[in-house]
Amino acid sequence: MPIRQRTSAGPKRSALVPSVVAVRADGTTAVGEEARDVVRERGRPPREGMDTFTATKNDIGTRKQYPKAPEHLNNPAKVAEHILRFLVAGAQEAYPGRFDRVVVTVPASFQLTQREDTAKAALESGIGLKAYDLMDEPVAAFLTFAAQRAEGVAAGRYMVLDVGGGTSDVALLSVEPTHRQVQVNVSGTSRYCRLGGSDIDRAIVVEHLLPALGELNGCDPKEWTYTQLASVIIPGLLDTAEELKTKLSRRMAARRTVGSDWSDLEERTSRDVHLEIPKGAALTLPAGSVSMNAEEFACVMAAYLDPDESLPRNGEYYESASIFAPLRELLDRRGWDAQETTLLLAGGTSHTTLLQDALADHLGVIPLAIHGSDHPLAQTEISQGAALQSFSLALDETSPLVVPRSDEALVIETATDPREVIPQGTVVPWPDDPRGRVIPLRLSDGSKSNGLRLSFTRNGVTVQNQVIEVPVDAQDGDSFTLRARMDANQQVALECEFACGARHTFQIDRPWSYVVNPQVARDRILELEADHGDPSATPREKLEIREQLVDLYRAVGHLQKAADSARFVLQRAESDEDYATASNDLANVLWEQGAREEALHALRRAAPRAEAWLLWNLAWRLEQCGRLEEALDAVDTAMAADPDGSSQSLRGRILKGLGRATEAESQFRSALSEFGHPRTASDFDLHWMDYVARQVGDESLRDSIKDSRRRVAQASTTKGVLPEADLPL
Description:
Elements: E1 3-7, E2 10-14, E3 20-23, E4 29-31, H1 33-41, E5 52-54, H2 76-94, E6 104-106, H3 112-124, E7 134-136, H4 137-147, E8 156-163, E9 168-177, E10 182-192, H5 197-216, H6 226-257, E11 266-268, E12 273-275, E13 283-285, E14 291-293, H7 294-301, E15 313-314, E16 319-320, H8 324-334, E17 342-346, H9 353-363, E18 368-369, H10 381-395, E19 402-404, E20 410-412, E21 419-422, E22 437-442, H11 447-450, E23 452-458, E24 461-468, E25 479-486, E26 491-498, E27 503-509, E28 514-516, H12 520-532, H13 539-555, H14 559-571, H15 576-592, H16 596-606, H17 612-625, H18 628-641, H19 645-657, H20 661-675, H21 683-696, H22 699-715, E29 724-725
Parallel strand pairs: 6-7, 8-17, 10-19, 10-28, 17-18
Antiparallel strand pairs: 1-2, 3-4, 3-5, 8-9, 9-10, 11-14, 12-13, 15-16, 20-21, 20-23, 22-25, 22-29, 23-24, 25-26, 26-27
């Protein structure tokens, strides 16, 4: 339904409400198009997490906080609450009265805490959710697709690709239509939080607009600081980038529809941009001063459409990831053939001609847009499906149009035969008995001393494996029961009840969905940043958080933030060890940034306060630079304190580089005598031991090293004892 939104040009009614919240000058809150207007009228770039909030849905269910925001907007759930409250008010304005049923959609990859936070935000906004009221977004989009087909939909496999503003959601759906319903199992999901329209906008800014801005203002973009770029310049150019992208995409789609070539297309900016730079001169980008043609747009899009790229590319100011990475990984993991799968497209960015052509070329299947870009209800595929589900539930709350279904049995492994926990084809909620299904088991010998291993699988794939401590009053050989229930969101609740009366409860989060999550490091960054911003955090706790953030920032390519954190730690180092560690961390970041002399300077400055390991690192860096004589001096100094195997290995490498082969051979032999047996060596020493073994041609030692690595890899999988099946089921 169209929602009335106030804008500077007057009221606007649209079914599309941007997920943007902004704080006005008087402290009140604006949502949607009005929030965008508030941001534009400030005359300065938005301060994300302070007075402007965009794409916060990605952070729901995490510990992310916005410590500089007003109290009523200081975490993602509160932002979601304001958006939902705005939608409810808009709907009630259009249709006064009580709503019989409301369905809220979430990404299929949302885990339990994210779903709980969403339900809580809905409740705070006046929406009480019942069974089936929390619906997976790709399932809702599929329902819209199904409703458009008078002949109905066929049973089979469907892949829904929803490319929105800030994320790309992929879902594999196994579909089985019945007389009055469609039973759907979400067989796999992927959510790339840095693969959406806004990420493409950032790429256009960095790769295309920043050079033009520098040239027009007589500046070198390399001279702008990280803070100036990340806080002011890049956010201030995003609307311009979106305008160029949208105009070109629409014209390319129009040309494609009539079979015409689009390579000659070009678009120009239509609005003036004025940026006030802290501690710098103001920058301007006049309307019409910058253009982008179709070829330049295709170059920016290439990283997102590379069929051979499997890993995200991390940059200082934006990340890119190929859309084929989550698609292919999901298909491969579930054993699905793309050409036997119907590919459905949803979301505004999915209408991009370049994306649709790339999918057809590299997957061998023609994608079907649920709504075309010129459809009056374009970009509402998910909300339409939710509306259809809520209508069905309002008529009969026991008869949703779509119900989740398990497409494989969930079993628990035992020392004898696996035992079925949830049958294949189960429709939720399950079972009818609220107490759940009971599986009788028995503690195997050794459980008391080694722990009870509970391993759950589907079709041979482990979905959860945990070891629990056996209660004090329980003994090997005792019977115990496993009780299982599954709710409407496919959350499996499990409870072990032991003969002594003790209980252990736990959950399995949607065991039939294989979830691709490339955002683990970023999720941890969000948690740590929230902890760092907590007013109750002590200086020592903040220091320890910064120490962890250095490596995490490096892992995702945020090198300037990593360097800032390393300097923060360095300035507060209380001991020689802390100072050496922080100096080494800073040197590693500077090295990756290409600032090699600064990196070497950081190591040299710390050398008088450091142990041999930092001198080894200095020697290693000098060797990488080709400054072999200096490297030899540094490693000799390190060896004077500790002539261990790795130091002797590095010295041999340096001597070999200097052409002193005989000395190098002798040094390698000496290094081997220092290492000891591979089974007792660290990963670091194993690396250098293997290097030396290759230099001296010791294949027997290399085999021992490989065997040691295999043993370490296998050790973590053998903990705990499986239960025995107590009675036949």
